[in-house]
């Protein structure tokens, strides 16, 4: 792949949720005119931040020092939490142990906004001269009832990867555009004797993560968000059944991985070893695949093939900064200074320029209209095109996924492992159980 496509930037791992764990490694320059005078009048402010230990180099240290020099009345109390610090934020607010700000994964934002634990940021964004440069699609995702609750930091869309060498050997000249084309390509590529799987998807864990994309491609969804914040389950939507039947067809045609117990990391590893022809694939997994031996030039990325709806859509994962609504005003103001620094243009440019000295990052989206990842690294042309396309078709995961996903998961596992399973019956039973065990509690917590 043209230049510097080895080192990984992001910590995003599996549900789109883990990218938030990397937030502590970024920073940015904001419009801070007059901020020192305001801070001086308020006195010293200690800002508690949940951080990770990853990606701390000399550049990061120097940029943090620069922030503190520009804000002499702010001190940082950094508490190291590995994994995804943002996932523990809700419980910490309830117990009174939450930080003043946190880097939160996209998947947690719906529930956090509904819970009232995030500070509206309009009073800050309205006065920030860089706010108009942020991509509207991502700003809108974290705007509710006119209030902005999160500042998007980095975005990784779910794409579709294919092994170019395997495609070429099978006589296939371009990536599949539809479900049917993907199935036919998988048949040609599938080679059990050489341990090559034509098509792969999650079947052992988190199956709802990938399955939701197919439901969308069929024109439906797994839940419906009502205006009052409550949810309706739509597990029996015709699109859900069509997606399930497509899964069954991939299985019955023998093109799925033979070992259905393989987990997420196993699939990415096998793709990197040249054993998978195609699979759902996020841009930030490219470097992981390369570490397992695949030639960078063999990794093709495209938008997911369309289903019966005829429309392309996919999920986006990523992270955004939020402020604890329960902290005091001086800390909220200090938190904004930190967030605007970390997400501003000057810092963001310096961040990627620094990474360029170590090897380019994965193809991801910078959620600003005034800069692009391709400003800093030379990627294959198709990567730039697919990232640009994903900006307009990406969406958040289905509403209530954190609460309802396990019920979908079990139904998907059943229809993949039991050839006689009836999708309508399995998803109807899953919905009934979810309604009984989870829906009422969810709606009580999220109703406006």
UniProtKB/TrEMBL annotation:
Pfam families: SBP_bac_1. It comes from the Bacteria. Residues 22-41 are annotated as: Disordered. Residues 1-20 form the signal peptide. The keyword Signal applies. The keyword Transport applies. Transmembrane segments: none annotated. InterPro entries: Bact_solute-bd_prot1 (IPR050490), SBP (IPR006059). Keywords: Signal, Sugar transport, Transport. This is Multiple sugar transport system substrate-binding protein. It comes from Faecalimonas umbilicata.
């Amino acid at each position: 792949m043209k230049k510097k496509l080895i080192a990984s930037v992001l910590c995003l791992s599996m549900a789109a949720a883990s990218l938030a764990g990397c937030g502590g490694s970024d920073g940015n320059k904001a419009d801070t005119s007059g901020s020192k005078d305001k801070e001086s009048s308020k006195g010293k402010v200690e800002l508690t931040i949940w951080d990770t230990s990853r990606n701390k180099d000399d550049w990061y240290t120097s940029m943090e020092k620069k922030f503190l020099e520009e804000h002499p009345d702010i001190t940082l109390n950094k508490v190291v939490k590995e994994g995804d610090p943002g996932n523990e934020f809700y419980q910490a607010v309830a117990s009174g142990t939450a930080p003043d700000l946190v880097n939160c994964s996209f998947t947690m934002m719906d529930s956090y906004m509904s819970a009232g634990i995030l500070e509206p940021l309009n009073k800050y964004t309205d006065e920030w001269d860089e706010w108009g440069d942020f991509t509207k699609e991502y700003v809108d995702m974290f705007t509710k009832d006119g209030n902005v609750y999160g500042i998007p930091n980095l975005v990784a869309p779910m794409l579709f990867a294919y092994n170019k060498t395997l495609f070429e050997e099978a006589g296939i000249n371009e990536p599949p555009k539809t479900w049917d084309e993907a199935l036919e390509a998988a048949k040609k590529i599938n080679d059990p004797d050489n341990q090559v799987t034509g098509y792969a998807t999650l079947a052992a864990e988190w199956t709802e993560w990938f399955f939701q994309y197919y439901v969308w491609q069929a024109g439906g969804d797994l839940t419906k968000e009502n205006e009052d914040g409550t949810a309706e389950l739509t597990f029996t939507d015709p699109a859900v059944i069509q997606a399930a039947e497509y899964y069954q067809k991939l299985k019955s045609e023998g093109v799925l991985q033979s070992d259905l117990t393989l987990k997420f990391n196993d699939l990415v590893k096998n793709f990197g070893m040249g054993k998978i022809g195609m699979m759902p694939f996020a841009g930030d997994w490219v470097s992981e695949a390369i570490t397992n031996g695949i030639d960078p030039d063999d990794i093709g990325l495209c938008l997911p093939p369309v289903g019966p709806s005829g429309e392309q859509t996919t999920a986006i994962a990523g992270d955004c900064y939020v402020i604890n609504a329960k902290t005091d005003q001086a800390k909220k103001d200090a938190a904004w200074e930190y967030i605007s620094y970390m997400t501003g243009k000057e810092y963001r440019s310096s961040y990627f320029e620094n990474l360029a000295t170590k090897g380019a990052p994965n193809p991801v989206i910078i959620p600003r209209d005034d800069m692009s990842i391709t400003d800093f690294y030379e990627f294959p042309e198709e990567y730039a095109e697919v990232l640009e396309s994903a900006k307009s078709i990406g969406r958040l995961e289905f509403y209530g996924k954190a609460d309802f996903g396990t019920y979908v998961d079990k139904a998907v596992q059943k229809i993949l492992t039991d050839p006689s399973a009836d999708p309508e019956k399995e998803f109807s039973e899953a919905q009934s159980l979810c309604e009984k065990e989870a829906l009422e509690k969810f709606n009580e917590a999220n109703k406006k």
